[in-house]
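Re: your question from the hallway

Yes, I did run it. Sequences:
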Amino acid sequence: MPAEEFVAGWISGALGLVLGHPFDTVKVRLQTQTTYRGIVDCMVKTYRHESLLGFFKGMSFPIASIAVVNSVLFGVYSNALLALTATSHQERRAQPPSYTHVFIAGCTGGFLQAYCLAPFDLIKVRLQNQTEPRAKPGSPPPRYRGPVHCAASIFQAEGPRGLFRGAWALTLRDTPTLGIYFVTYEWLCRQFTPDGQTPSSGTVLVAGGFAGITSWVAATPLDVIKSRMQMAGLKQRAYRGLLDCMVSSARQEGLGVFFRGLTINSARAFPVNAVTFLSYEHLLLSWG
Ligand SMILES: CN(C)C(=N)NCCC[C@H](N)C(=O)O
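Structure:
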């Protein structure tokens, strides 16, 4: 099993993550809190109340976890394609796999990465939703003192299963949308690259960026539900399950609720995934 794809997936994912985290914080807050009038209002309030650091809340854990999550995604994707088509990453430009194979390999990568991602994503969302400014004398301390304290508190209160709150919604979100992600990337690369050649850096950037946008547009409805289920049990009401969360969110806030965070998600997705694919392709090329 070639291991370079796992390492390249990790490094490229970390670069994309740092670039996209401030957008991600705004998105999570818009999806789970009703106090903001929109993106700009959320950014202004976050900055005034918590300074620039507020946008980077909850980032340390994803940086550590991206090693597992993105390397599983890209490593499983590439190795699933190898199993389906008997071609290595380098051979795939001369013998391109069918889109059905790309989709199946993407869904497989998405399904497996969702389970690795679930506990890390839960902790990230809980920390991003703490709107208290960093410890100031006299102000009430935030519920969680950091990622380890957050994980330990959830574990103590709810046991190991608590750490997988929202995992079902996450799996449903990521399995098909990662198929869409890789198919869009491959399709765009092939449109702008002569047969048998390696796509240029510009093509990889654009194809990666649009793969990010397309997959996140498809993922946003379940992303909203996932974030709400992860927050359930704290400030918000607890839901009886995924369907209950969908129905009661739509009843209370209308169908528009499923598109909360769509604009910020798309704005974030382009640079994050352009950088992710560019560094992934370059790393694999330089390792030959
Ligand atoms: C629609 N979904 C779930 C994805 N496209 N997931 C792939 C993640 C890529 C990058 N780390 C990001 O956060 O955009």
